[in-house]
Structures are given as structure tokens and as C-alpha cells.
Amino acid sequence: MASVLESDFTPGIGMTTTEAPYIEKARTQGEVFIDQPYSLYSEENHDTWKRLYARMLPHWEKYANEHFIRGIENLCLDPERMPRLEDVNKFLNPLTGFKAKAVAGYVPAYQFFDCLRNRDFPTTITIRKAEKLDYLPEPDIFHDISGHVPMHTDKAFADTLVRFGECARTAAQMCQEIKDKDEQVRRVDSIIKAMARFFWFTIEFGLMKDSASGGLKAYGSGLLSSYGELEYCIESPDVQRYPCQLEWVVNQYFEIDHYQPLLFIVDSFDHLFSLVDELEKWMLEGKLNNVAPGEPLVNEEDLRSFLEANV
Asked: What's the pTM value of the predicted model, to 2 decimals?
């Protein structure tokens, strides 16, 4: 099947989330990894990026961890124009071997984690509507490029993502060895739930001790790409903040449609790396086979991605 071509669409037609014909056609054709059709971005798309970036800068300076600040500087992002992934990768890849890889939408869980193992980051290339700057339930390019990717310039953090991908590979190998199909599905559901919770409370919504001030800074991409929640997570007395303990994290459900009321703190990225090691050890010991029920619910596509993975 032929790939979707940028030339098939009118320049400037727009790459707005849920309203991008290029993405719709790619999904219809079953494409996951795609090219970034840069000429299709509209001036409204560029203006949305500009507005998002400008209002986040003072919040990053105040609430983001030092590794993120260095990452933003190292990526040389244009604050006024949508980022080109090829330019992002030109600065990112020499630092940690990671690269942003354009996707047409949702990537099943195992494939996503396996991309991390191979130092590829599945990257959304659409951007939210101009009237929805504050919240979008699905990822967009601002969340991925300004929230996630600056952290990928840090070697210790990048190595942690690779380690997490290796952990997912171990999970797939274990689950495929189970002969009883019902038990296989039950166990992989529990393990995916545990891994999703760990990823959520660390990579997406993690807090870190700040060595300079002794206070807290954000390193989770969901926090770093949200104007309102970045301040809220540090300043609000309503947020419960606890040291990151694996037994809490893997059993704690979360909901995505409001500011997070409970967050976990790591000491450093070395600490985070050790927690991924511990996660894999618990997995091998069977301690993730019966985590607490509840969110997130594991869909059939994610289950199949582990059960049918080529490991």
C-alpha cells in the first residue's frame, strides 16, 4: 500500500488535532509511522505553537528541573514556528541517540515501549486548536516536543527510558510462555496496568528534588507541557506529594481529565533508573500479577501487542 504523500494535500490546509486530512488518510491506510508534512501546517497552527511556547517560558524557568531547562536550550526550538522533527533530531540524536519519530496516532503499548528501547520516541505531529490551549485529552506536538523531548537530551533520563523498554520486552517474553490462555490474558492485563501506572506517575507526572534549592521541580512531561498544572503541582496545598515507592505507584489508579491530586517524588534520575530495575525484578518474581484493579483500563489492542510481540 502506498504511503500518504504530502503533495496530495493543499499547503497550509492545517494539521490541527482531530481535523487533519493527512492523518485521517494515514490511519485509514493503516500507517503508524509517517513523515511530517511540514508544508501542511497553517498559520493558525504556527500561531498556536507561538502562544503555547511564550506563556510556558516563565513557568519553565520557575518550576522545571535543571535537566529540562538545559534540554530546551540544546534543542534550539523556534518559539514562533512549529518544530521540524528533522531539526529537532539534528540536535537531539548526537546527545543521547534518541530521535523523534512521527506517528499517525495511538501506538499500541508494546510497540510504544519497544520504540523507547530502540531510542525512538513516537511523536504526535498535530497541534491542538487555538481555543483549547489549556487542555487536550490526547497528546499533540506541543506536549511531545516541548514536554517530553527536552528530557531526552539528558543521558541518565534517556537511559532510563531505554531500560523501561527493556522491561516491557521482559514482560512480553514472560507472558508468551504462559500456556493457559485465560491466565495469560489476566496476567498480562495486570502487568500492563502496573507499567502504565509507573510510566504515568514518573515519566508523565513525576516530581524531583531540586539539588540547588532543596525544593521540588517537575520532570514529568504532562506537567511540563501544561500551563495550569505546572504551577499547581508545585504550589497547591491540595496536592499530595510522596516519595516514589514502587508498591504505591503500581497499585495507584489515575484519571486523565483533571489536575492530578497525588504525585510522587524521585531523588534523581539514577533513583528513577533503579526503580525501573526494581519494577522488572518484581515482574520476574510475580509481584505485578495481581495489582489493584481500576484505571487505567487495558484495551484489547494493548493486550495483543504484548501477546503477539516478536520477542
From this structure: 0.94
